[in-house]
Amino acid sequence: MALTFRKSFRILPGVRLNINRHSWSITTGGKNGPRYTSSSTGRRTTSMDLPGPFGWRRTRTSRSR
């Protein structure tokens, strides 16, 4: 069984600091609009909940070089 570590802290309203074993990330937005995440590894993700019966989420991810 693999051992995992993940912790999320709310540092301001609408801003979260997420920490795991390999990296950290900052997440802003959400609730009624898109959610933006920037990771220490260079990954940037935009996600948004779409209307519908399943609460589906669309995500776009890019890596900075």
Task: Summarize the topology.
Elements: E1 6-12, E2 15-20, E3 24-29, E4 35-39, E5 43-49, E6 57-63
Antiparallel strand pairs: 1-2, 2-3, 3-4, 4-5, 5-6
Note the main attributes of this structure.
single chain; 65 residues; mainly beta; 6-stranded antiparallel β-sheet; 6 strands; 58% strand
- Spatial strand order of the main sheet: 1-2-3-4-5-6
Flag low-confidence runs: none
The sequence of SSEs as H and E is: EEEEEE
Oligomer: single chain
Rg for CA atoms: 13 Å
Helical amount: under 10%
* Silhouette: globular
> So how many helices?
0
Percent of residues in beta strands: over 45%
Number of strands: 6
Largest sheet: 6 strands, antiparallel
Mean pLDDT: 85
Report, as a whole number of angstroms, the end-to-end distance: 34 Å
Structural class: mainly beta
What does this 3D model show about the protein?
It is a single chain. With 65 residues, this protein is mainly beta. The chain is 0% helix and 58% strand. It has a six-stranded antiparallel β-sheet with strand order 1-2-3-4-5-6, with no helix packed on it. It is globular and about 35 Å long. The N and C termini lie far apart (34 Å). The model has no long low-confidence stretch (mean pLDDT 85).
Concise synopsis of the structure shown:
This protein is 0% helix and 58% strand. With 65 residues, it is mainly beta.
